[in-house]
Amino acid sequence: MPKITYIDYQGVARSVDGAVGDSVMETATSNDIPGIDADCGGACACATCHVYVNEDWSAVVGKPEDLEAEMLDVADEVTEFSRLSCQVKITEDMDGLVVTTPESQF
């Protein structure tokens, strides 16, 4: 199982195992990771699962598609490394993935 590390805005890291095919958001919510509320349940309709993908992982994770990019327009503190974690499906290549949650989600 790929290990995903979630870092909150204060620098506290929490690493958990994620299942291939699950989203980074599903993995966070099932492991009680703070800062990822996922109000819409993963429907790409709220932006409460906004994360920053560590720059070293941006090529593996990829860029947002159109609907996700539109939802990111309503999120706070968006950067070039912003993704909605509900739209990032875990693959074997993501073992060691690091994402950070924005302060605005706490």
Annotation keywords:
106 residues; alpha+beta; Ubiquitin-like (UB roll); five-stranded mixed sheet; 3 helices; 20% strand
Question: What would you say this structure looks like, in words?
Answer:
With 106 residues, the chain is α+β, with helices and mostly antiparallel strands. It contains three helices and five strands, in the order ββαβααββ. It has one domain: Beta-grasp domain (Ubiquitin-like (UB roll)). The chain has helices at residues 24-30, 58-61, 66-72; strands at 3-7, 13-17, 50-53, 82-84, 97-100. Strands 2-1-5-3-4 form a five-stranded mixed β-sheet. The radius of gyration is 12 Å and the shape is globular. The model has no long low-confidence stretch (mean pLDDT 96).
Shape: globular
Low-confidence stretches: none
- Report the portion of residues in β strands: 15-25%
Quote the CATH topology: Ubiquitin-like (UB roll)
Task: Work out the radius of gyration.
Answer: 12 Å
Mean pLDDT: 96
What structural category characterises the helix and strand content? Answer: alpha+beta
Instruction: Give the strand order of the largest sheet, numbering strands 1, 2, ... along the chain.
Output: 2-1-5-3-4
Query: How many beta-strand segments?
Result: 5
State the end-to-end CA separation.
28 Å
Number of helices: 3
What is the helical fraction, as a range of percent? 10-25%
Q: Let me know the CATH homologous superfamily.
A: Beta-grasp domain
Biggest sheet: strands, sense, closure?
5 strands, mixed
